[in-house]
């Protein structure tokens, strides 16, 4: 796998160098040809072909290049036979350079495009499995239960404390009746961003429910550390609400429940989650 990645990086570097070389050669040939209008037109067409190459792949790019070559050939034949003009040999580089530029661009960007496609496929798979929430870009209850099982097993094997934070909006049902759809969407967005940004790199954030917005965080820490993280999220949320002109006049705050995994009292991730939800009732 490492050798494969090294080869891919090498191909990208070679492709980038060749791309820069082809662009430099094209620029020099454009200056030597001294035909500004045709060069500008052909340059715009070449840029369009490069866009096709990047977003659609090598096959559509080759087809576009073939069409461009055919177009240039027709133009030259018309000028030679129809208008009795001499063939402008200085412009013949446009027959081959766009194709070479497209090939080198594809070589230098194919790994990046493949990675983007893989990320897109992964996102679609997560959404299909119900493990990813499209509105908040957070993982859902399905993923929470799966990941909590991993956290719990790690806790058992290495004796590392595991806790969960359950975060809700205080009096959300009452607030919802007073807020517009835009305000509700903004509130959900701010809360999700704050909760996610308040966690460490190895802490994972989830949205468990959208109807009565409920977030969760899995942490490798004890209940005390969880309370510190929860307070950090509450403080950041309060600051963001005060900075929002649309929400500042509403009495919006978070409630946080912290539950630490206890193997003697809990048997599965749902016990951990439900205990955290129960703890939110005591956050006053």
UniProtKB/TrEMBL annotation:
Upper lineage is: Bacteria, Bacillati, Bacillota, Bacilli, Lactobacillales
What name goes with this protein?
Answer: GGDEF domain-containing protein
Bilayer-crossing regions:
12-30, 36-55, 62-81, 87-107
Q: Which domain of life is it from?
A: Bacteria
Q: Which UniProt keywords apply?
A: Membrane, Transmembrane, Transmembrane helix
């Amino acid at each position: 796998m490492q050798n494969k990645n090294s080869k891919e990086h090498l191909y990208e570097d070679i492709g980038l160098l060749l791309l820069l070389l082809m662009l430099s050669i094209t620029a020099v040939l454009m200056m030597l040809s001294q035909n500004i209008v045709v060069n500008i037109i052909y340059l715009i067409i070449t840029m369009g072909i490069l866009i096709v190459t990047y977003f659609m792949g090598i096959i559509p790019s080759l087809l576009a290049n073939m069409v461009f070559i055919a177009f240039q050939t027709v133009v030259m034949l018309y000028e030679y036979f129809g208008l009795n003009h001499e063939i402008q040999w200085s412009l013949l580089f446009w027959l081959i350079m766009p194709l070479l530029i497209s090939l080198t661009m594809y070589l230098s960007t194919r790994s990046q495009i493949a990675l983007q496609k893989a990320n897109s496929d992964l996102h679609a798979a997560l959404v299909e499995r119900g493990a990813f929430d499209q509105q908040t870009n957070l993982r859902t209850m399905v993923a929470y239960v799966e990941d909590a099982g991993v956290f719990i097993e790690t806790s058992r094997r290495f004796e590392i404390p595991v806790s969960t934070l359950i975060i809700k909006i205080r009096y959300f049902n009452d607030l919802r009746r007073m807020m517009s759809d835009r305000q509700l969407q903004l509130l959900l967005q701010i809360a999700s961003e704050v909760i996610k940004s308040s966690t460490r790199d190895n802490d994972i954030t989830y949205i468990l429910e959208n109807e009565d917005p409920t977030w969760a965080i899995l942490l490798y820490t004890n209940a005390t550390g969880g309370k510190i993280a929860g307070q950090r999220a509450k403080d950041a949320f309060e600051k963001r609400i005060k900075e929002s002109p649309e929400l500042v006049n509403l009495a919006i705050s978070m409630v946080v429940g912290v539950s630490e995994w206890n193997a003697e009292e809990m048997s599965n991730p749902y016990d951990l989650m439900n205990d955290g939800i129960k703890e939110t009732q005591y956050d006053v």
